[in-house]
Every structure is written in C-alpha cells, then in structure tokens.
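Sample entry (393 residues):
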Amino acid sequence: MKISVGVFFGGKSTEHEISCISANQAIHALNSEKYDVLPIYISKDNEFYIGDELFDLANYSSFIKNPSSVLEKVAIYKDGNTVKVRPLNGLFKKERHIDVAFPVVHGTNVEDGSLAGFLQMLDLPYTSCDVLGGALGQDKAAMKDIFKAEGIPMVDYFVIYGSDFEEKYDEYFEKSVKLNYPLIAKPANLGSSIGIEVIRNESEFKEKIEECLKYDFKVVVEKMIEDLKEINISVIGTTEKARVSEIEEVTNGFLDFDKKYQPNGSKGAKGTGKVAGTKGASKGMASTIRKVPAELSEQQKKDVEETALKAFRVLNSYGCVRIDFMIDNSNGKVYCNEINTIPGSLAYYLWKAAGTSFDQECDELIENALKRYARRSKKTYSFDTNILDNYKK
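Predicted structure, serialized as tokens:
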C-alpha cells in the first residue's frame, strides 16, 4: 500500500508564491509508485484547498487570488488514529487521509513553527523542523544570538527593535557608526532576500531602517563584507545524526529577490522524479548561477562542513535545511550567515551534486519523519491524576 503524503505549501507569508514553486518541484519529485501525493494549498487567508489543478504550476495564477473559484476547500482533522481531509462543500464527496505531512513552506506564519505546531497537534509525522527549530530558524536575531553563544563565527551585528527606534535612535545610530559602513539591514523574520537593504553611509541609515521596519518589528544590522564569496551547503538529518551536501559558490553576486526567482524554468511531469515548473516559470533557487563544487581550500571546506553540522544541531533543526556562509576574500575568513529551515527548491541541486537524486532526498525526509514519530510515540505525555475530582459538585 502506498504512503499518503500531504504536501503543504503557500500560507499567509510574503514568500507565498516562492513556496508554490518549491512545493511543485517536490510534488513531481516524489515517487508516484511509493506515494499517493496530495497537494494541500494554504491560501493567503490560511484556508486549506485541494485539487488536481495543483499538480501544474501553470494553473496557479488563475486561482491564487480566489482559490475557491477553482479548488476545493477542506478541513483537516484527527479521527481516532487517522488524519483526514474532508471537503467542506457537498455531502457525498470522498474524504482523503494523510500518513505523512511534507511541508514546503517559506516564511512567517508557516515555516516559523506555526505549521509544525498544527501538525504536531494532529499527531501526524512531518518532514521538517519542529516548533522550536522552525521559530529559531526564522528569527535571525534569535538565531544569531544562539550562534554567538555557541561560538559559531559571524560578522559583527546588532538588533534594532521597531518599538523603540525613535526613542533610542541616537544609540542605534552610534552602533551603526561603530560597525563602520557599508552595512546590511534585514527584517529579522523574512526570507528570499525580501526587505534587505544596503546602508552605504550615515545619511542612508534612518531611511533604510524604516524601510526594513515595514516588514517586521525587528531588524538585524550587520557589517557588509565588500569582497565577498557566498557559500551555501545543505544538511539533512536529525539532531542525533546528520550529513552534509556538496558546497556551492553563488557566482551571480548578491542574491536579491529578483535574481532568485525571475522566470526561466521548464516543465516536468507528475510522478517522474523530474523537477516541475512551467514554460517561462521560475525554477526558484535552482535557477541561481552557481559553481559546484565551490572553490575552497581544504581548511575552508572543513570549516564550512563542521560549522554547518554544529549550527544544525544547536538550532534544534530537522529534515533538510540550507545554511549560508560568507567568506571574506580579503583574509579568507569563513562566517556563518543564516539557516533556511525549509530551503527554496529543498536544495535538491546541492544533493544531486553529492550523488543523491531529488526523489531519494524526498525518501530520506519521509523515512526520518516516520522514525521521529515512532520515537516520540514512546514518550509519556500524560499521566493519571485525580486533580479534577476536587472540582466535582
């Protein structure tokens, strides 16, 4: 019997559309001989939808603003030991069930532990980080504070809180001067390079921070490495056992939103294990111009791999993540930048270079999810008590 896999994507996030691209790639990579794949679209209003139209990315522009016009709204609930997907319109429509959840979500309200919490309450195995790992991975300020405490090398940084930006403006400005321009400012809880600003001098500081604060309540400000080499690596596994992918060097400069996601993709077929897209559609992070393997010294390669595994563990990560590094070409120093707990395109291109195909990567994620669920099921989460007897009438 096939395993029923619910691929969750979308959500109330600025990275909604990017999630759709990544999820469509995963949907087509999952082996149709092993899995009964059920795409579950989360609308921008956080409603769940299913439908055959979700298998083809070319259909998405027709319903993304009004999904109920094309797709079927569903409720997801637990019934005994089974998680069911029930259509909300029509008395005799067939219910589906899910054995494993496969989240391919990006950004706030989904990747930040929100969806993981929902899946955990359903007592459903899922392939991504748990609530804590997702939350720490999404909040760059908390992430960097933990990295700093664990001795993971990073560029100098400080955090601005929007609630007191005006009140403490002089203090924040002085910190920026001490870091020495140019600087990078990032909304603490966004990804896909959304909202990132380069502050090149003192006169730009206030304007650029206010722009970042349009997206989040916190902003991370860090020293910009001007002679920069961007290095990315993926990690798959659990806190007990993990492995690293091949390392890439990004060769088309700073990856802003447009460079990551401008259209240039191709279409794949359902269940073939090929990357899915549509003619003229973006292939997401897979479309980035890159050098694989990256040109690194043996020591730099070792530093990146060891630091990636350490960062994965200290942030309580799980599943497949991508960890981004920066190398200062002026002195050769390696700095950890940030983790992406559910990376664009699930970083399949890095695993392919390491000898693991996309469908094998998906198999490993599902296998790990089932093993984690089995371990958790052996833990004790409740015990008999007579506390409520004290409240009897």
